[in-house]
Write a structure and sequence with these properties.
The structure holds 2 protein chains of 2 kinds. Chain A is built from no helices and 11 strands. Chain A has strands at about 5, 10-15, 20-25, 30-35, 45-50, 55, 70, 75-80, 90-95, 105, 110-114. By secondary structure, chain B is mainly beta. Chain B has no helices and 12 strands. In chain B, strands 2, 5, 6, 10, 11 and 12 form a 6-stranded mixed β-sheet that branches. A 4-stranded antiparallel β-sheet of chain B has the order 3-9-8-7, with no helix packed on it. In chain B, strands 1-4 form a two-stranded antiparallel sheet. The chains are: A mainly beta, B mainly beta. The interface of A and B includes residues 45 and 102 of A.
Chain lengths: ~110, ~110
């Protein structure tokens, strides 16, 4: 398994501002992912982040709104830009272990936009 | 396209009893993996169990087992000897092995009563 940490754990932000969420893994992994969970909903994949390449975004998500960095095999950041109340969600990073198909999640960042 | 269906929005079970959470899936890809996650009120996503489409035996992890019926496209989670701490949302997810995204069902809320 993997131990994943996220910062911040929660934040309250004003409309129009941006927030950068950090994800740190205790081992080197190739595949990292960012998910969003809107209130009372299931999880939706935002993008896949591989080290050394541009992030791959899912339909409905764009780089200008959710820029992602993946500088090395243990770290990634997701920025939520120009926030609106509709961005209020839990944002979770996850990793896939290189030797299995198991995917593990970080504890999540609970974002509220006012 | 892949689809995951969890038809039970909420379930009750008495402590020490066994409970089955239903999950059906739909995919035309022969190579896929099925996952179950637990999400307590804290919001973290806890990996429980994984079943590959070519695995001959049902996966088991402690008190969790996955009842995999490939012909019926079902992957039910069985929790034996329920504990109060099992009260949480449970999500079934699938990933085709040619891709990386986890597709999640809507979840089942489980409440364990004394």
């Amino acid at each position: 398994s993997a131990v994943i940490s996220q910062k911040p754990s929660r934040d309250i932000c004003q409309r129009g501002t941006s927030l950068t969420i950090q994800c740190q893994v205790d081992s080197q992994v190739t595949m990292m992912f960012w998910y969003r969970q809107q209130p009372g909903q299931s999880l939706t994949l935002i993008a896949t982040a591989n080290q050394g390449s541009e992030a791959t975004y899912e339909s409905g998500f764009v780089i200008d709104k959710f820029p992602i960095s993946r500088p090395n095999l243990t770290f990634s950041t997701l920025t939520v830009s120009n926030m609106s109340p509709e961005d209020s969600s839990i944002y979770l990073c996850s990793v896939e272990m290189d030797t299995t198909y198991e995917q593990y999640f970080g504890p999540g960042t609970r974002l509220t936009v006012t | 396209a892949q689809k995951i269906t969890q038809t039970q929005p909420g379930m009750f079970v008495q402590e020490k009893e066994a409970v089955t959470l239903d999950c059906t899936y739909d995919t035309s890809d022969p190579s896929y993996g099925l996952f179950w996650y637990k999400q307590p009120s804290s919001g973290e996503m806890i990996f429980l169990i994984y079943q590959g489409s070519y695995d001959q035996q049902n996966a088991t992890e402690g008190r969790y087992s996955l009842n995999f019926q490939k012909a019926r496209k079902s992957a039910n989670l069985v929790i034996s000897a329920s504990q109060l701490g099992d009260s949480a949302m449970y999500f079934c997810a699938m990933r085709v092995l040619s891709g990386y995204a986890l597709n999640f069902g809507k979840g089942t809320s489980l409440l364990v009563t004394p």
